[in-house]
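Incident log, entry 3
Record: tRNA U34 carboxymethyltransferase (351 residues)
Problem: checksum mismatch between cached and fresh output.
Input:
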Amino acid sequence: MRSGSTRECAGAEAGANARHALWEGFAPFFECLRTTPAAGWAGPLSRLTQERLQPARHGDLPGWIAALERLPRLAADHLMLETPCVGVAADTAPSSAQAAQLREALEALHPWRKGPFCLHGIEIDAEWRSDRKWDRLADAVAPLTGRRVLDVGCGNGYYGFRALGAGAKLVLGIDPTPRFVLQFLAVNRLIGAECCAVLPLADDDLPALTDLAGHCFDTLFSMGVLYHRRDALAHLERLRRCLRHDGELVLETLVLEGTQEQLLIPKDRYARMRNVHAIPTIALLTRWLQTAGFSNIRVVDIARTTTEEQRATPWMRFQSLADFLDPQDPLRTVEGYPAPRRAILIGTRSG
Ligand SMILES: Nc1ncnc2c1ncn2[C@@H]1O[C@H](C[S@+](CC[C@H]([NH3+])C(=O)[O-])CC(=O)[O-])[C@@H](O)[C@H]1O
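Fresh output:
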């Protein structure tokens, strides 16, 4: 029989191995960050990342880390970062045992909200066809070649990979949901991008970092986040301070139809989401952007979200948009509000 102290040692060793599997995924990014004007962020960011990913902080984390460790090591001979299905393939297809192991480890990270990903023959058909949003913005943003990109509320980092594919030299994604960080680590364990990471942070973490090494990003994405923030102006001001002068903000958010400055404040839920605080018209959103210090503001796309773009799939088996719309009138949510309609606005940091 094992003694208590042997068991403790075995537990400590397993914990250390799990931490190793995590840090192995972030290390190349921190090395890359140290070569940029944001080098001052590397220390605080890595400390914050370690703190937020303490296994004790999140009950599911040990299981997700174990899934990460079960991913087979496969050659990354062909990267696919410029195609709708982001992914990787090897010259030699994985064995059936490796393919089964890969599928099982990726399924352990369910639900996959953003994608698609094509990983050694396995297609992760996520809830969102994120490639469609990318198609709506790709030609409108300043060319990403050689730029440093910050993606706030990036989910599992789908757009970060697309930004690398479009020539960005460094992409930092932040998202406070640990599952999405682990999904990124799984995908990137296979892809092997060095100057790209998703870290477990929120927009509230940005001011402290900006004081250390502000103004260092050339392009900043904030997509699908503004309506989750109680103080939209504070969110926009934080974003501005991370951008260099003339740097570009790409803001995607829910908008209300109408030409006047108006704001919908859902009474309780909006499309079954508890945390949608406010939906402005484009006129009001434009004024918020001006107030926060952006200029050259332009609307590059307005689109109603369709049930082809957001839907349940085998990789996201919960309810999705079709369940959140009024079955008698798909132009309304189940609560009777206008159905989701999203706009992409681009502005540059003026001050
Ligand atoms: N305070 C916060 N700071 C940063 N992120 C946050 C915060 N609160 C929530 N999030 C994160 O913001 C993301 C919102 S989804 C957009 C994903 C991607 N951008 C997309 O455009 O597909 C919404 C949608 O599906 O559109 C989630 O990943 C949250 O964890």
